[in-house]
Design brief:
CATH class: Mainly Alpha
Number of helices: 11
Order of helices and strands: HHHHHHHHHHH
Mean pLDDT: 80
CATH topology: Four Helix Bundle (Hemerythrin (Met), subunit A)
Low-confidence stretches: 9-13, 214-218
Largest sheet: none
Shape: globular
Number of domains: 1
CATH architecture: Up-down Bundle
Length: 218
């Protein structure tokens, strides 16, 4: 190819707009963006950690993004499933669930840290509030070390126990930041639900027929 040919080819591509995001993927991108928005919210907690209004406002915004990303993802997934894009559906939902779980854990860890350093609850309350995260940490290491064939059967989408544990964590944090005397009792409930949610992840990974039926277990 001569220099003139190269120049002509380059000029032919000038002004070509970058490839747009397919309309069917907008819902997925919005859901993932809502999930990841909880990461900067976690950092913003430290701007005014001693202000209950500031912290509770951020807790409320984080809770709304958690509800919104699930709603958007479910609507997107339903359309993709109806359109028979099932391979892309499964992979995208798995990635979205992993992002959602990651963002939840970052925000909760930051909020619990703020609670501990500002309000100084007993250490056992902090451990109770973080039971799920503490139990999941070694399991995630094992997950990363496992063969790809085993990792592929792990479902990161939140089940009822996981959703209940996250809701309980947010409620306990609210009690903690307003100085409510029932924080200890709520923290014990969070610890129990956290342990149940981890057990649910493990059982769903190694006994998929209980949740997916025989056709989807393999």
């Amino acid at each position: 190819m001569t220099p003139e040919d190269v120049a002509r080819e380059g000029s032919a591509h000038e002004g070509v707009a970058p490839e747009a995001v397919p309309p069917e993927d907008v819902g997925r991108l919005v859901a993932n963006a809502l999930s990841l928005s909880r990461v900067p919210l976690a950092a913003l907690l430290w701007v005014a950690p001693a202000s209950p209004l500031w912290v509770l406002s951020l807790l409320g915004v984080a809770g709304l993004t958690d509800l919104a990303d699930g709603w958007v993802m479910r609507r997107w997934a339903a359309r993709r499933w109806a359109a028979h894009h099932r391979g892309a559906f499964a992979a995208s939902v798995a990635r979205g669930a992993a992002l959602d779980g990651f963002a939840d854990k970052v925000f909760v860890a930051s909020a619990v840290s703020v609670l501990y350093f500002v309000h100084e609850p007993p250490l056992w309350i902090v451990v109770a509030l973080m039971t799920r995260e503490l139990l999941l940490a070694p399991l995630m290491v094992l997950y990363r070390l496992a063969p790809a064939s085993q990792r592929s059967r792990v479902d990161f989408t939140a089940g009822v126990p996981g959703k209940a544990a996250t809701l309980a964590q947010f409620c306990a944090l609210i009690l903690g930041f307003v100085g409510h005397p029932l924080l200890g009792e709520m923290a014990l409930g969070v610890s129990f639900l956290g342990a149940v949610s981890v057990l649910h992840y493990v059982v769903r990974a190694y006994m998929p027929k209980l949740f997916n039926g025989p056709d989807r277990a393999t």
